[in-house]
Amino acid sequence: MVRWLRMKMNNRAAVVSLILGRVVYAINWYNVAAVFALTASELNQNVSGLGYVTSAFYVGIGVFQVPGGILAAKMGPRLTVVCGTTIASVTALLTGFAGNLAQLMVLRFFVGAGMALVFAPGVILVTRFIQRGSEGYGVGLYNSAFYLGGAIGLSGWAVLAATVGWRGSLLISGSLGLLTSALIIFFVPKDIRRSGFKVNLRHLKTVLLDKWLIALSVALLGLGVGSTVVGNFMAYYLETVTHMGVGQAGTVASLALVFGLVSAPFSGRVFDRFRNAKHLLLASGAFMTLGLGLAFFGTIYSAVLSGILVGLASGAGFTFGFSAAREANKLDPEYETLAVSWVNSISLFGDFAPPLLFSFFAIQYGYSSAWLYLAVIAFALMSPVLFSKAPKSLARRTNEVTD
Known about the structure:
The chain contains 18 helices and no strands. It has a single domain (about 10-190, about 200-390), classed as Growth Hormone, Chain: A (Up-down Bundle), CATH 1.20.1250. About 85% of the residues lie in helices and about 0% in strands.
């Protein structure tokens, strides 16, 4: 709160606009999972259909992360966020008109592609307006907006779909996205472009081959395994296996996002203070693995506890990872966006696999085994970060904050 009060009024307006955009961004991320029980009935689909749709989304958001980072370095983060928000919102709105699974997959791919242009530039913009020395708090604040929107998307959109239909609910969320695009245009100051700056291929290679950034992205992929399957399958699982109502199942599934909302800004402060990214990420991974493993028991109570632990781990781990990626940039500040995009691209592109694996395991061996197998995969992906060498820049920043 003290950091918020110290911000200039124009900075506050910019941050509020970006945060509102992030909230609606998350609604459009999770709303299809919330309404898929209704969608599946109309389009004659089952859990495998949800797996295909979810994977198409993650391929889109993963493939376009690096192009989004390059675009932000070339034309500025603000304009990149506006373009991405508009593309994602228009295609989210059009999803309400999908007539079959193939159309749904194509549209979700382009929703993901638009969102790929939003996250990393948004991180850079928010940290630009936050008080110096509190950049980790800014990343946490931006992440918390995602969890808030995700919770609304999972619980609120399930209720909304029961009232106006799944198509009407998607039309509403797409329209809200276009509104936030207008807010960003109006309230976020235009980028101040440095004359003479050009994207250097040698510098691009340095970023893309950085071993620490690759290790971070693999760790975030491990975290993404948990957040992806819980966020996209828990509601459908509770509806089909425990026969819970759509609204109630959405509420239980949204617990992961509610607790991510709680842990993200707090974790940003922890990172600002300690900056030991390895240990912080490994602790988050342990909570994530435990949370996924608890879903194995197949009860409503284990689902609730699973969502809580996965949410805490997700909110903390992604905040730690993206903060470390932003500060590990050794080159021109213009490449900060690319560093975050590169870390995000591997983790998100890899996230196309967990939905397919989970739906396969669920059909072949049952839901309990599916939760357990994915917990093992998440743990395996988190462990390599322990053997990676963090850049000295993080240690220097630690000394600066302590001093």
